[in-house]
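[User]
Protein folding is very new to me. Any chance you could explain this protein sequence and its structure tokens? I have pasted everything here:
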Amino acid sequence: MQLNLHTDRQALTQNRARARLSEADFVLMAALDEVQYRLNLVNRKFTQPVLAGWQGGLWRETLSQFETIPDAETLEFGGKRHDLIVHGMSLHWSNDIVGQLIQCRNALEPDGLFLGCMFGGETLHELRSSLAEAEVALYGGLSPRVAMMAEIRDAGQLLQRAGFALPVVDKIELKASYRDIFHLMHDIRRMGETNALNLRKRSLDAKDLFKLADEIYKNHFAEPDGRIVATFEVLFLTGWKPHESQQKPLRPGSAKTSLAEALSTKEHPLKG
């Protein structure tokens, strides 16, 4: 049975080869800062860390103690076990996010830590809305343009489905301003994040589409100075490989102290 893959990996590789990360690195560097901050909060020294990603020197220089592997659909852990896996800013392009997470869990030692980051569903919502409105106006329909990015409420379920213990998901949101939609799309190209969907439109779009989208964008999402605003949402997924030493949730009804006692207040039963 052939899977319906939403990402064209060859196109993604070409987009990344043309990227100029150092010219549009503000999202990657903000994500890296958050990764370091979260790792510093963990009271543990990791001796076998690995980074799955493609960020080039931007992350490798900072995480120099990490072994690095590509973010391929099949992750090349080489049969090793690790105490820390960081999956950097690429899960949104995976054809099987849960499968990626399961591979990471399997490659961890018991009580090993997984920390993944990816673009979230609010990313570039202004651009998506403007392009969609312009396409409907000109062509009467829509074509796929953006990778399937998880909403924060769904990301925790992905960790649970993959078998991680103590799953936590949080996010950061960055705002950037641009002269126009064309300036924004240049930055997206520099990031290596242009359209790599299998179902993308293969022919070139008419200039009229982007001119209209730019007008719509400025009408709905412009600042007082006329520059447009773009949102970049980054999700951080944290989970541990299960181990008997980890905290376990109590069984329902097993609590020995009521909430009223914990809050030093009086409990009033509801009237029937």
About this structure: The mean pLDDT is 87. The CA atoms of residues 42 and 113 lie 10 Å apart. The first strand starts at residue 49 and ends at 52.
